[in-house]
Amino acid sequence: MTFEKFVFYVFALITVYAAFRVITVRNPVHAVLHLVLAFFSSAGIWLLAEAEFLGITLVLVYVGAVMVLFLFVVMMLDVNLAPLREGFVRYLPVGGAIGGLMILEMSLILASRHFAAAKALPPHGPHYSNTRELGALLYTDYAYPFEIAAFILLVAIVAAIALTLRRRPDARRQQVGEQVRVRRQDRVRLVAMAAESRSAGPAEEEGS
Amino acid sequence: MSSELSDVLVPLPEIVLAGLASLVLIVDVFQRSRQRPATYYLAQLSLLATMVTVWATAPDQPVVALHGTYIADTMAVVLKLFLLLMVLGVFVYGRRYLDQRGVAPGEFHVLGLFGALGMMILVSAHSFLTLYLGLELMALSIYAMVALHRDSRAASEAAMKYFVLGALASGMLLYGISILYGATGSLDIATVGARIGDQAQLGVPVAFALTFIVVGLAFKFGAVPFHMWVPDIYDGAPTAVTLYLGSAPKIAAFGMAIRLLADAMGSSLADWSGMLVILSVLSMGLGNLVAIAQTNIKRMLAYSTISHVGFIFLGILAGTAEGYGSAMFYALTYALMSLGSFGMIILLSRRGFEADRLDDFKGLNARHPWFAAMMLILMFSLAGVPPLVGFYAKLAVLQAVVHVGQVWLAAVAVLFSVIGAFYYLRVVKLMYFDAPEGEVGVAGQGLDVRVLLSLNALAVLGLGLFPGALLGWCMAAFG
């Protein structure tokens, strides 16, 4: 067994284990953390397959952004998972049938001669950078579609803000300008009072 | 290398519009007035500047640039000029209407500009990738525009329906494109066209891809049996948005159909022309028959759109330069008529009143004879009465179909147009021979809307009297 194969099996085992734990642990925060582990190990496998860019993107985008968002959502919403787990036995036949079909389809495709004939691509030299190659393509041949995609994202931002940002008249918000401009005279009033004797009563003693 | 640098400036109109639209987005943030006058005028100025750029950079010969992702040819230039003109008209019509309904004007104009950018990219796409991205840029902007009127349940529902069905249509189109990519190994439209023409063994996958692409196109056009979304969305959206999506995107969709069917799959003409025959006959039939039963004028015009899409398909399915040219003429003039008739609904509406029932047009002649006459012109033109432009558009398309020997198709089209004439003439009858109900008035809208509507209707008349120049231009695009 070569070293690469060994690394691959380690990462693959961790991925499968983490993915399995995602759907079996009871605590949703633990499930999200296991998903992070699964993404990390998949990124490792991609690095092994010389797809560095995909691996880096998976960690940056999914682990760095999407999973953090998931954690926020899971922690903010107090989801009660008990009702979700009910009816497991009832859905088992349907779920099992669909799972079995998927396994059958995958084995049909993977066992077919088209895939068996495919040879592994020759490995690249030591100075080959997948990210650089992708970048070179993206900013030359595909520069125009790339820019259009940027505008699509801009439209998505505009649309999302336009559709969700709603100025409610009864919303309370800080008026920083007012806060800065406030003077002592507006908030504190000094009242000159004559001194009072301490024998006014026990009730006033407690209040002071 | 130097040639590649000069390449960058070939899509100058798109660059100008993208830059100015972004500028509008920024300027909009710094305005305090609720009507945002600077946004409006700057948006109009951007459209005008883009039109000037399109005109100034129009090439004599087709130019393919940016590694085969962009093409500038006569068809793209004409389509771009017209769709920008339509968006310009929509902004004028919609301005006060949106203000009266509390719709954020800044976002409407910005999304409208980005939608126009998407349409421009779409009609001058020379790669499936660019075509799809342009389509999505256009569609995303329109989905958001439909939903902009957030206090209206109907608008939210329409936006949701449009979004889901639009995504489905995009999925169909993408699936077809992916099969084509698998079969030919290229995304470049000219290369795909050449490979399909050369290699006969590609027949089965190409026919398969073609089916999905035609379904996607029919969804985007709103042709029967993929028309379900059209009436609900035309009716549910604020009229200013209906105006937008009923005019310019039709022109862009025509451009997309030509790029996909004629340019990429011209050698499978026999296959797709048969599919378009079915779509076209069903659209003309169902559109015209169901429109008769409508009491809401926005729904009626939506079904009328479906029937006109049938006519556009008639021209495309002829598969000749004459057919494409006449379909293009039809798409352009239909957009103009659609702009006018929805503009009329806006003209009659005011704060809290939509004027979208047919009964709202009763006795319009007694109150406003000039605008009743304008509506008469528009309705007659949609029905195809000479000497208005709708007649010449129909005539050109029918001629093209007859020239390729499909006389029966022309006869069916004429039959359905005659049926369709009924509901257009009913509007005329309501305006001229019925007593007015309620308060029909044009006081709700400004002078700019009245002037534009008059110009719009007179343009329909003028193009009908002198169709030669525009028709010649459309034919030259495919000559």
Total DSSP E strands of chain A: 0
Mean pLDDT over the residues of chain B: 88
Q: Superfamily at the CATH H level of the largest domain in chain A?
A: NADH-ubiquinone/plastoquinone oxidoreductase chain 6, subunit NuoJ
Sheet with the most strands of chain B? 2 strands, antiparallel
Proportion of strand residues of chain A: under 5%
- Measure the end-to-end span of chain B: 33 Å
Structural class category of chain A: mainly alpha
Give the end-to-end Cα distance of chain A, rounded to a whole number of Å: 82 Å
Number of structural units classed as domains of chain B: 1
Strand order of the largest sheet of chain B: 1-2
* Parts with pLDDT < 50 across at least 5 consecutive residues of chain B: none
- Name the structural class of chain B: mainly alpha
Q: Which spans of chain A of ≥5 residues are poorly predicted at pLDDT below 50? A: none
- Mind telling me which CATH architecture of the largest domain in chain A this is? Up-down Bundle
Blueprint of the fold:
The complex is a heterodimer of chains A (208) and B (479).
Chain A: H1 3-24, H2 28-48, H3 52-76, H4 82-85, H5 88-111, H6 113-117, H7 130-139, H8 143-164, H9 176-181, H10 184-187, H11 202-207
Helix pairs in contact in A: 1-2, 2-3
Chain B: H1 2-7, H2 12-29, H3 37-56, E1 63-65, E2 70-72, H4 74-100, H5 105-123, H6 128-147, H7 153-184, H8 189-198, H9 203-221, H10 229-236, H11 239-264, H12 269-292, H13 297-318, H14 321-348, H15 364-367, H16 369-383, H17 389-403, H18 407-433, H19 447-465, H20 468-478
Antiparallel strand pairs in B: 1-2
Helix pairs in contact in B: 2-3, 2-5, 3-4, 3-5, 4-5, 4-11, 4-14, 5-6, 5-11, 6-7, 6-11, 7-9, 7-10, 8-11, 9-11, 9-12, 10-11, 10-13, 11-13, 11-14, 12-13, 12-18, 13-14, 13-17, 13-18, 14-16, 14-17, 14-19, 14-20, 16-18, 16-19, 17-18, 17-19
In short:
The complex is a heterodimer of chains A (208) and B (479). Chain A has 208 residues and is mainly alpha-helical.
Description:
The complex is a heterodimer of chains A (208) and B (479). Chain A is mainly alpha-helical and 208 residues long. Chain A is 72% helix and 0% strand. Chain A folds into three domains: 1-81, NADH-ubiquinone/plastoquinone oxidoreductase chain 6, subunit NuoJ (Four Helix Bundle (Hemerythrin (Met), subunit A), Up-down Bundle); 91-121; 129-163. Chain A is built from eleven helices and no strands. The radius of gyration of chain A is 31 Å and the shape is extended. The model of chain A has no long low-confidence stretch (mean pLDDT 83). Chain B is mostly helical. Chain B contains 20 helices and two strands. Chain B has a two-stranded antiparallel ribbon with strand order 1-2. In chain B, a hairpin with a 4-residue loop joins β1 (63-65) and β2 (70-72). In chain B, α10 crosses α13 (297-318) and α16 (369-383) runs antiparallel to α18. Classes of the chains: A mainly alpha (208), B mainly alpha (479). Chains A and B meet through α8 of A and α2, α5 and α6 of B.
